[in-house]
């Protein structure tokens, strides 16, 4: 008996070990799964198998304390960022007494403290009953599938998925979809506001006509911006996406068949953390995570003109492109929610400080003064006006005054009336202007009330200050003020984020001091030194002798923007808004060109290049040429020391010539010929694209 004890103990140990191992496997498989009998409650959560996403109860930043939601967010970044919310319309008050579970009918459902169903997947689970599981994938997609006992714990029978119910965020692999059988369009819908995931007023979706583009809509009906048809991986309305996304390895795809049409996108590197968001401001924004800064970086926002968003400032709000704050209330109005306006949320609009009389001609024993009109000059008139038959300004005013629902009128040969809330008011800033007459209570214009007294005092003080400034002004002050205005116009044109920036011609005139600091010139134009508002020095090249149109020029700039290598100077921006003038902006190398260091007599011993430095320069040039010829299919013809810049850091060579390229397209090949100059050493060569299709061209020997 004593001899048997060790063998029995050994067998028992093996059995226990195997059971523990199997339990560990089951725990690992269930960490990303909600199954029958294993609900989520309180601070419990599930995490996708690769650890990228998590799901559980959460409170949005800025939300009310008693409002909890079930959502999916990024698990491996420091800022909790929801990408999908289950119960957008109906929060629960306490996660500890609520639970997310597989219901008796097999659907994933959220139950409150009373056991009432708050939200459900509502899938057809008749064939499987409650034999279902909810699985969170590393794509951020939540699947409801038939329970499986195979080795992976997965099933191909997808009954429901969150990617078919996108909220305000479009993740890689998700679809903006049009179901041709039902006519249902799946798109993104903004949050109602900061801290409130309920559906808002703005949506992004595939063009209902089936074109390969997406559109922005207000209230599901009013279109206010489109991307243009997708061509390859470029949307004409979003040039920045092509420039940044090419280096990030993303790709768009449009699928059109008898069943559906949809847009989707993906990244070559699955570790990329990036998202499209339909923002509550009415702009669609593309964000990517910058781990070094532990924050989100904005790639682009559309539409760029913030006042192009319909109802951007709500009722009786006035939008301005140039002011620090996008919106202000019209005179006689105040923000409906000052707290929301304080955080940049303006869609709630403004309310009247004093109610209109609206035909109430008596107040006690005294006759009430009728409403009056405030003249607003230099504004862009809102749409949705209605024509009236009045033939004079006075008759038009009377027509509005006689209708209690009339809020404003305008007369310019014809009478236009606006009824109800006045929306889409905008300071024109030199564009098409109009004169609007806004209806206010008489007391607002008579000067009674603290609001009007404050405005009168402000106007008086402002007028006195203007007189003093005019008297004290000098030529130096005038020039200084002009410089500040120019600097303000080019704020935000920093080229450090890797995108191709569209500059205005007047901005390039400013940063180059009207092209006064010439660095050099060549066959394709002259190069000038420029300095951005954030002290970044750039080189601005005025191109000459180019014959292609603006569309071709922008396409070629987009292609060059994707060419990025440590040994190549990067293209930063371009300009085409100066008529036939075309300019490009690229990095500036403070050490000058290489020929100055190779061929000119050194002024001191420290100026002499060592053989090690010369070797590093030659190696850098070779790496740059290899990248151009082999990796991005760019053929660089003539090479001389003068267009090679010598950076201060270890003399790593940059091929600094950046000129407009000509793009050759084969069946599925594309080659770019850059910097073509005639040379006695030219010889015939063939350029091969990725498909092997040959293109004939000229190539100079490089020594």
UniProtKB/TrEMBL annotation:
Q: Transmembrane residues, as ranges?
A: 457-479
Report domain Protein kinase positions: 513-703
Its recorded reaction(s) are: L-threonyl-[protein] + ATP = O-phospho-L-threonyl-[protein] + ADP + H(+); L-seryl-[protein] + ATP = O-phospho-L-seryl-[protein] + ADP + H(+)
Any one Gene Ontology biological process term?
A: recognition of pollen
Query: Where found in the cell?
Result: Membrane
Cellular component, GO, one term:
membrane
Which keywords does this Swiss-Prot/TrEMBL entry list? Answer: ATP-binding, Disulfide bond, Glycoprotein, Kinase, Membrane, Nucleotide-binding, Receptor, Serine/threonine-protein kinase, Signal, Transferase, Transmembrane, Transmembrane helix
Outline the segment boundaries, as ranges, of region: Disordered.
Answer: 675-703
Task: Show where the Apple domain sits.
Answer: 358-441
Residues binding ATP are 542
State which Enzyme Commission number(s) the record gives.
2.7.11.1
Top class in the EC scheme: transferase
Q: What is this protein called?
A: Receptor-like serine/threonine-protein kinase
Q: From what organism does this protein derive?
A: Oryza meyeriana var. granulata
